[in-house]
Write a structure and sequence with these properties.
The complex is a heterodimer of chains A (381) and B (860). With 381 residues, chain A is mostly beta strands. Chain A is built from one helix and 25 strands. Chain A has one domain: AttH-like fold (Beta Barrel). In chain A, a hairpin with a 5-residue loop joins strand 24 and strand 25. Chain B folds into four domains: 207 residues, no CATH class; 188 residues, no CATH class; 215 residues, no CATH class; 170 residues, no CATH class. Chain B contains 28 helices and 21 strands. In chain B, helix 2 packs antiparallel against helix 24, helix 15 runs antiparallel to helix 26 and helix 17 runs antiparallel to helix 27. Chain B is an alpha+beta fold and 860 residues long. Chain B is 57% helix and 15% strand. In chain B, the strands form three sheets. In chain B, strands 12, 13, 14, 15, 16, 17, 18, 19, 20 and 21 form a ten-stranded mixed beta sheet that branches. Classes of the chains: A mainly beta (381), B alpha+beta (860). At the A-B interface, helix 1 of A face helix 3, strand 3, helix 4 and helix 6 of B.
């Protein structure tokens, strides 16, 4: 029973951070910065935390292969939820639990051969070293999970090596991965602003490493396996990005074998429509980014899946067309059930590995990850 | 058999509805009172256990600290131990709301649980995500999460919110020791939320650490570990813990509480079972009477071929019937009584042992079942002898309508010899030591006194009857007939007298015990409370030692003009040998200077003042010595935050403040080992000739805005007695109920006798006795029964009191009580019983008086 009490308080935190009243000012009523002003990304500074914004996340998805060819999908996400802007200054009579930040984190693993999926989470408060995110560099912790970046060296300040670690409480399943970018970070939107909807605060600063060569180890059911593969990293921060009339979003990250990558984003309203500000990015083989307007692409649902965990009904297959860039793809989940039900952020969502095929659905053209929120009741981060 | 039972028993009961009802009520009361006590005892432990497991049912390990707690950084290490899937940090404290200065019983204690309010708990039901509306009262909007943490937000129960007129956002002002603290109500738990004690209030851990001066500390970590290898995980956690913290399974703490409370609860239960025993005497009585009254029918049936077995089973069934019906009544009554007894028992437990704050009765189905089974079985057993009696008499004999009184000519002597043997046995049983701290043979001796005394009753009745006959022969025909009747129905009257005796014995023994105890405690308080003024936190306090002063309060009071010296006291609860005890910090210089402690044996207090300060030497209280078998010269090993410490016992002192025992250590040693300089109470010695009322005001002013209560020695002594009286309030309630049952027994017996003697009464009326004479005759008999019950009860009671004082209390609690006989009370007890017996005779007497002569004679 007490469990539900705490879970609800968590849910309140999330709701309060996402459903605050609309504001035209560049700060929210609680003093957080809104992502409205043109923004110049500077690396490695912007890999670090931005405590002036209310919410922030570092989002890894990827496809791993063991030496004997077994395929796995993984998701590892660190969230930062600001309770109050700025850094705490604890005095001697002040509790070290007065930190301003919360660090929920999610780890999910899809075993594509065994058709199994599981997820675990962490929820760390900024106190006594349990949760932290450094400013100016990539260094994020939630309990015993961590994310660290080190500059690749040389003149290329946008290149770096990343190291991500997470495990289940019993240590039976774990990842320990090193990710090396093959392309510079791709900045989404215009002028460093990724707009989601009409309201002024409905925007974020958002960049991705769309092609990360990944090596390391995967511990699966107690067996440590050497893996390599391809990952995608999103880093996004903003304040009051969602409004009450929004129902959720669909997000697509597609890595094509022809060295192009696609990010497509649809923000769904409660009336069933998609906001006109929903958009996408096409990352070209040379790393340049082409902005895609809502009208540039079409996404068609081809199947649905009913969740036995939450009762939600999710799309479970898509046809993606971008006529102007000769893109016509079929996306199919590698495992139908990749739902993260009842996570530490108090919301449930589907985030899963998908196969990317040609229009006939036969020839593999790449790999992808799809995220869907708002199909199982609660609104999502 | 069925027909036999219907005819003999049910038919009879229908004809004697009133007497059946009296028996039923008596059995019901007996079962009810023992059930009420059992439920109160179970609830005290269950309330504690529920607060232990409040966070999650999955918790299978806990890290617990002592005193101020342990370093919060242990949490990170514990979380990283392999196999730990969840760890929740907790601060346990309490505050007082509504306290008034000068009233040590004012206000209400709320337990404050400081938890990480943002930490989700583990759940099997992964799909279940709560919505805020479930926990927040429907009238208000959802609480601002930052406000909940930043503005000392508190989550309180609906009961507290209603009682204190609190709404979302309103302030709750409370006292945390000497400081006034303010919480903002962030959420109100609906009444429907079960499982959480309504006196519990939740705050964020940051709030709790700051308000209770525990920044950097935790009291507890609740852990969910891999159940399959929980022992391995426990060892791994133990390896990363700082000193003073230990990792245990949750049941360990509950067991420690149980062990600490065991003597107290067992004593209450034993007293309550005496009430049940009195009820059983009544069943014996009732069945015996029904056997007598139906002798002609039984004789006829036997002559017609009914077997002994059939007759036996019929009457046993009557006892069982009373047992089942009475026990059912007892379950209902006991369930209701528990509402009162839980309050009384938990008040004592909270004040003296551990803060449980039971706020509702925990109806443990096992306890209910036990009461029912014990009640039914005892009732059936009570019918055993009358049933055997009915079955064993020959058909020819039973044809005559006479009681079993005619069966033996000298019924008293043999039984009395048996009784004397039992009493000798009882004496022998006072010598063996307790078994695992429980005075088993002492309780057995108590039972033997009751049974032995009861066996002596028939002879006493025979002697009294003979004596009364010769005394009243010339004076009063009614008295003569009453005395003759007394002797004529020895066995039935014996049961009535014996049940009275047991009830009176219980009342007398408890009165002697309490009186002696009170006299002893008053003498002890007079001798040990030597300061002029005492400083304590405002309002109600419990045994948690949570209410405390900051260290500088003593300094500020020392600076007040007119103050000669200030003495501080600080205590914390610590586990020891599977139970809980207390370690307290004291100043041995003032102890030596003022002769504050009564040491056992020859102890040089001057030398103590030199050997104690800043060392690991301790002195222990007498109950500590008894309870743990530790004596001067031994050592006691305890893991403190300052490391594993071996304390050397220097001396034992006489103490009546805690039967859980106290270890006294020098205050500097305590501060060093427990990182704690706070104080629970202060004693002020005034300069000679100081104006105490003025000094009291000056002391209260000196610490403002901190709030304290200052009492004079006389007020504190009064408080000691008041706490003492509250502790024994439930005991008084117990024996009042026992007396009630015994009086019901007298009513039942007299009534039966009157009905049975219809023929005689008719003849007597025929021979010229007036209705007044008949009435007086019954009253005389009632007075004889009452007088016999009173006198034998006082004798048995004095024996029981000696047993309670010198064996049971000595062994169970380690109390050394000086015997103090309340002679006036004993005299009053006898008078009271005779009066009660006379009152019990009113109804049967008027029934006898109203009997029509002709009808009475016609029954022959």
């Amino acid at each position: 029973m007490f469990h539900r009490l705490v879970a609800s308080v968590t849910a309140i935190v999330i709701l309060a951070t996402t459903l605050a009243s609309p504001s035209d000012a560049a700060i929210t009523p609680s003093g957080f910065t809104i992502a409205t002003a043109p923004y110049q990304f500077v690396f490695p500074r912007d890999h670090g935390a931005h405590p002036g914004y209310q919410s922030e996340w570092w989002y890894y998805t990827g496809h791993l292969k063991t030496t004997d060819g077994r395929r796995f999908g993984y998701e590892l996400t660190f969230f930062r939820v600001g309770l109050k802007p700025g850094d705490p200054q604890p005095g001697p009579t002040q509790s070290r639990w007065r930190g301003h930040e919360l660090y929920p984190a999610h780890f999910a693993l899809t075993d594509e051969a065994g058709k199994t999926f599981f997820h675990v989470d962490r929820f760390a408060r900024e106190a006594i070293g349990m949760g932290s995110a450094a400013k100016g560099k990539l260094d994020v912790r939630a309990d015993d999970w961590s994310l660290a970046g080190s500059p690749a060296g040389g003149a290329d300040r946008e290149r770096m090596t990343m190291h991500a670690r997470a495990q289940t409480p019993d240590g039976v399943d774990a990842i320990d991965l090193v990710q090396m970018p093959a392309k510079p970070p791709a900045i989404h939107g215009h002028d460093g602003i990724s707009r989601k909807a009409q309201c002024p605060s409905c925007a974020s600063h958002y960049y991705s490493y769309t092609r990360l060569r990944t090596t390391g180890s995967l511990t699966f059911h107690g067996k440590k396996l050497a893996v390599d593969g391809l990952s995608w990293m999103d880093h996004e921060y903003g304040s009051d990005e969602l409004q009450r009339d929004q129902a959720g979003w669909d997000w697509f990250a597609i890595q094509l074998d022809d060295k192009r990558e696609l990010m497509l984003y649809l923000l769904r309203q409660k009336d069933g429509s998609v906001t006109p500000q929903s958009s996408g990015s096409l990352v070209n083989p040379d790393g340049s980014v082409t902005y895609l307007r809502r009208s540039d692409f079409a996404i068609e649902k081809t199947a649905t899946w009913h969740s036995p965990h939450t009762g939600g009904t999710y799309p479970s297959g898509w046809r993606v067309k971008i006529a102007s860039h000769d893109v016509d793809l079929v996306l199919a989940p590698t495992v139908a059930d990749q739902e993260l039900a009842g996570t530490s952020t108090g919301v449930s969502y589907w985030e899963g590995a998908v196969d990317v095929l040609d229009a006939s659905g036969k020839t593999p053209l790449g790999v992808g990850y799809v995220e869907m929120t708002g199909y199982a009741g609660a609104i999502s981060l | 058999m069925n027909a036999l039972f219907q005819g003999l028993v049910l038919g009879h009961l229908r004809a004697n509805k009133l007497r059946a009802l009296v028996t039923l009520v008596a059995v019901g009361l007996g079962v009810a009172i023992s059930l009420a006590i059992d439920l109160a005892n179970a609830t005290a432990v269950a309330s504690f256990a529920s607060s232990v497991n409040i966070v999650a049912n999955h918790v299978n390990l806990q890290v617990v600290g002592v005193g101020r707690g342990f370093d919060e950084r242990a949490l990170v290490r514990v979380q990283h131990v392999d196999g730990v899937s969840y760890a929740s940090p907790t601060i346990e404290e309490s505050v007082v709301v509504g306290a008034k200065p000068g009233d040590p019983f004012s206000g209400e204690i709320l337990r404050v649980l400081g938890v990480d309010l943002l930490r989700p708990l583990p759940s099997d039901d992964t799909a279940r995500v709560a919505t805020p509306g479930e926990f927040v009262s429907s009238s208000g909007a959802g609480p601002d999460p930052y406000a909940l943490i930043a503005n000392r937000g508190a989550i309180v129960s609906k009961r507290i919110a209603v009682k204190r007129h609190l709404n979302l956002g309103s302030n709750l002002v409370a006292l945390a020791g000497d400081r006034t603290v303010k919480f903002q109500i962030g959420a109100i738990l609906p009444a429907a939320v079960a499982g959480i004690d309504t006196s519990v209030m939740f705050v964020d851990i940051a709030t709790a650490q700051e308000l209770f001066e525990k920044v950097g500390y935790l009291d507890r970590i609740d852990i969910v570990a891999d159940e399959k290898r929980v022992d391995t995980v426990q060892k791994a956690i133990a390896a990363v813990l700082p000193h003073g913290a230990r990792v245990i399974k949750p049941a360990v703490r509950t067991n420690e509480i149980k062990r600490m409370l065991r003597s107290f609860q067992l004593n209450l239960a034993a007293l309550s079972y005496i009430a049940m025993l009195v009820g059983m005497y009544l069943i014996y009585n009732t069945v015996a009477i029904s056997v007598v009254q139906r002798r002609p029918e039984v004789g006829t049936l036997r002559a017609l071929g009914a077997t002994r077995g059939q007759i036996f089973r019929t009457f046993i069934l009557e006892g069982a019937l009373f047992g089942v019906a009475g026990s059912l009544l007892g379950l209902v009554l006991g369930g209701l009584l528990a509402q009162l007894s839980v309050g009384a028992v938990s008040r004592t437990v909270d004040a003296l042992y551990v803060a449980t704050h039971a706020d509702r009765v925990f109806y443990d189905p096992l306890v209910l079942l036990k009461a029912f089974v014990v009640g039914t079985v005892l009732a059936t057993l009570s019918a055993l002898f009358p049933a055997l009696e009915a079955a064993s008499t020959a058909p020819a004999l039973t044809m005559r309508a006479q009681g079993f009184e005619t069966r033996r000519k000298r019924p008293g002597v043999g039984l009395a010899i048996g009784g004397a043997v039992l009493l000798v046995f009882a004496y022998v049983l006072t010598f063996p030591p307790p078994i695992d701290g429980i005075p088993v043979s002492g309780y057995a001796a108590g039972l033997l006194i009751i049974f032995g005394g009861s066996l002596c009753v028939p002879l006493a009745i025979a002697l009294v009857s003979a004596a009364a006959r010769s005394l009243t022969a010339k004076i009063s025909p009614a008295g003569l007939i009453g005395a003759t009747n007394l002797g004529a129905s020895i066995r039935r009257n014996s049961v009535a007298v014996a049940s009275l005796m047991v009830a009176i014995a219980m009342m007398v023994s408890v009165a002697i015990l309490i009186g002696s105890f009170r006299t002893t405690v008053v003498a002890w308080a007079d001798e040990t409370l030597k300061a002029d003024l005492f400083v304590r936190p405002l309002g109600l306090q419990d045994a948690s030692y949570d209410a405390r002063f900051s260290a500088n309060v003593a300094e500020r009071i020392r600076a007040v003009p007119g103050v000669f010296a200030v003495d501080t006291f600080r205590a914390i609860s610590i586990p020891y040998k599977g139970s809980l005890t207390t370690i307290a910090a004291a100043d041995f210089k003032t102890i030596a200077d003022r002769n504050k402690l009564r040491f056992l044996g020859a102890v040089d207090t001057r030398a103590l003042a030199h050997t104690m300060p800043n060392t690991e030497n301790i002195v222990i209280s007498e109950p500590f010595s008894t309870r743990f078998g530790v004596t001067a010269g031994d050592s006691v090993e305890i893991d403190t935050p300052g490391g594993l410490t071996r304390f050397h016992v220097n001396a034992i002192y006489n103490d009546y403040s805690s039967d859980a025992g106290i270890m006294l250590v020098d205050s500097r040693t305590f501060a060093r080992l427990f990182h704690d300089t706070s104080v629970n109470s202060l004693a002020i010695y005034a300069k000679p000739g100081a104006d105490l009322p003025a000094l009291r005001t000056a002391v209260i002013r000196s610490v403002l805005p901190l709030r304290i209560d200052v009492q004079t020695t006389r007020e504190l002594r009064k408080l000691v007695i008041e706490i003492f009286n509250r502790t024994f309030a439930i005991t008084y309630a117990l024996y009042i109920i026992s007396i009630t049952i015994a009086v019901l027994g007298v009513v039942s017996t007299l009534f039966a006798l009157v009905l049975e003697r219809r023929r005689e009464i008719g003849l007597l009326r025929y021979l010229g006795l007036t209705t007044g004479d008949v009435r007086r005759m019954v009253f005389y008999e009632a007075a004889y029964i009452g007088g016999l019950g009173g006198v034998s009860g006082v004798i048995a009671g004095v024996l029981m009191a000696l047993l309670l004082i010198f064996v049971i209390n000595r062994q169970a609690f380690g109390w050394l009580i000086e015997l103090h006989m309340p002679w006036d009370f004993l005299g009053e007890a006898i008078v009271l019983v005779i009066v009660a017996a006379l009152i019990a005779g009113i109804f049967p007497a008027s029934v006898a008086a109203r009997m029509k002569t002709a009808e009475a004679v016609r029954t022959e």
